[in-house]
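Lab notebook page, bench 4
Experiment: in silico fold of construct C2
Operator: M.H.
Input chain length: 495 residues
Purpose: comparison with the prior construct
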Amino acid sequence: MSMYLLGYDVGSSSVKASLVDAESGRVAASAFYPKHENAIISIKAGWAEQDPESWWENLQLATADVLSQVKPGEVEVAAIGISYQMHGLVCVDKDGKVLRHSIIWCDSRAVPYGDAAFKALGPGKCLGHLLNSPGNFTASKLAWVKENEPDIFDRIFKIMLPGDYIAFRMTGEARTTVSGLSEGMFWDFKENRPASFLMDWFGFDGDILPRIVPTFSEQGRLSASAASELGLKPGIPISYRAGDQPNNALSLNVFQPGDIAATAGTSGVVYGVSGKVAYDPQSRVNTFAHVNHTSADPRLGILLCVNGAGIANAWIRRNVVPRGMMYDEMNAAAAEVPVGCEGLGVLPFGNGAERMLGNKETCCGIYGLNFNTHDWRHLVRAAQEGIVFSFKYGIDIMEEMGMRIRVIHAGLANMFLSPVFRKTLADVTGAVIELMNTDGAAGAARGAGIGSGIYKDNDEAFACLERLAVIEPGADRVPCLEAYENWRNHLNMNK
């Protein structure tokens, strides 16, 4: 019987599951559900919610799929790891029932609550202790619920991040991590404990937080009822959990200061690890505890998030390109257009408030469109270049903080499947792009191997990580930088 590690990546678009052979480190099976993008409920402009039950239903389907890909009776799952969409808010009552839909990461309604806390408590207090403004993070979302849905707030027993909730469904035990609390603005880095000063200001009782467990540890065991729903044996330990961006960095073996990871799914992220306390005074990029952070040996993730990334590319595919065209065909057509798109440009925003733009809801914009020169191919390339340029804009902020971005590690997935996207990123940043054979679910599985003691450290867990391609800056760098300057000028005019 083979021993496997089971990893889940609970995203806003889908839930992915991967079975990793613990001995070889190779992915034996993977699946994702739903096959279309999971619905985001948006009752009002700037709102974004999901039903946590949909995550669990899709997780069940993905689990059944991966188990069907290996021989029945020859599967022993030794440990489970969970990656999840960051900054979401799940509220449960004393019976463990969800009280309302989860307010997810790209929901903008809480911005005024975070801004009010930042102003009242002061930049020195917030940045010195939280390393961020409370902004639009989980604590501010809870403040919105407290003011606007007091009947629900009064019934809350525990609040959870999406991954905490999935682990709760598996084990019946409410747990969280320091990394998770830091992403929700519930962690005080200076005092090395939950941020009571912010919770007191908002009027939250400290008991509302789950118990803290280490990121790599036994965090509970699969209950008999959950095992029955998932088709697994009861008693399997959940031994790792992390937000999707720290986990994506882990998936690429990004653990030490100077290491850089990038993803470009629904949103786009550049994530760098720092060994010292660093923050952006304007909170345009954010600092969280990385998966291997301790107070004695700090490992902090500096995170640039661009909401309008893959979602902008998907909008172009649905609404601009010829009907039925697949992404690979669309990417090939974009490559026929010269760098800079002959003056056409896209500001790819329009998926909620953008942190790097001061939490403003800057809508998508198109400039330089010439009806006699441009066709749909130009618009596809302009959108992909615009997404890259938004990365570059944020990377400039990260470099102001002292980070030096010379090599970017990424999985060969989502926007990185586009040759235009990855080559433009290399040219405009001057960084080498290394594309690796991994994803978030496989990374979570290997994280579970570390947390359960099957692997002694990250180097052993990721010994089989395969480099698929290397993209270096090339001859197009000068026109690419010129196109970026034009793009940045238009952004500054529209901010």
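Observations: Residues 358 and 382 are 24 Å apart (CA to CA). Residues 376-400 form the longest helix (25 residues).
Next step: discuss at group meeting.
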